[in-house]
Amino acid sequence: MRILVVGAGAVGGYFGGRMALGGADVTFLVREARAQELAEHGLVIKSPKGDATLANVKTVLSARIDAPYDLILLSCKAYDLDSAMDAFAPAVGPSTTILPLLNGMRHLDVLRGRFGQASVLGGVCLIAATLDASRAIVQMTNMHTIVFGELDGTQSARVDAIAAALRTGGFDVEAIDAIVQQMWEKWVFLATLAGSTCLFRASVGDILAAPGGQVAMRTLFDECAAVAAEHGHAMREPFAERSRAMLFAQGSPLTASMLRDIENGLRTEGDHVLGDLLARRRANQPAGAPPTLLELAYTHVKAYEARHGR
């Protein structure tokens, strides 16, 4: 199976690098500067699961794609989706499968609108990783999982084949028939974490220690979960229990990557993680409904973007 990983950043570089190290046929679609970095220094992974360096990294520029790939693994930021699609479009053929690992849900409609419904799977990744100053990939926890499946809930031969290819990387892989439900659940958790830590500019532990912090966290989680329920994806109790354990862990240093983006003056996924969820909530709310914490969190992020021109 020929696999094209779009980008070689923290997420795509980690999963693609692990697969390449395991013997999979992986090529990274990158810009020229990143291609040069990888040619000179290799793809470096620093991880509690074991450090590794992939030498002789296979890369390609968009203009030099000359044949379709079997699988496209897409892990860009949601706001880069349009440019990413333009870049990997030459790699899409009649039998190509696109596996996106983006946050939220809106990207599914965009991808299916351009490449056809049959080309796109649903997926989520569970990993905390970043690029350090030397452009090495740093995995910050032991968690490294890809969960994916057919959007219509069926089992298929292509899902089985893709699962086998992914497992060459040694990370955890789950092929499931309820991927849309899992995507909604991750969205609820992420929106709660991003909304709270960005709104209060603090970690989970700091929020919980503040007067009213636990009430605010619970309120925001309930608001996000209510949107999912209104769209037919009520939170399953095992997920809700795991989420509450992380969101209400006293002393936890946990923050969302969106807060780190704000602290570093970078662009955020506020429109895709918070704004899209809010839009879906408003669609089912009467005019003049009072503002919610979700709305305040989104306003906070948009005010930051306006001030910094993001």
Please render the helix and strand layout as text.
Layout: E1 2-6, H1 10-21, E2 25-29, H2 32-41, E3 43-46, E4 52-54, E5 59-60, E6 71-74, H3 81-88, E7 97-100, H4 106-115, E8 122-131, E9 137-149, H5 157-166, E10 172-175, H6 179-200, H7 204-209, H8 213-230, H9 237-247, H10 257-263, H11 270-282, H12 293-308
Parallel strand pairs: 1-2, 1-6, 2-5, 3-9, 6-7, 9-10
Antiparallel strand pairs: 3-4, 8-9
What does it look like?
- The strands form two sheets. The protein has a five-stranded parallel β-sheet, sandwiched between helices.
- With 310 residues, it is of the alpha/beta class.
- The protein starts with a strand and ends with a helix.
- It is 46% helix and 17% strand.
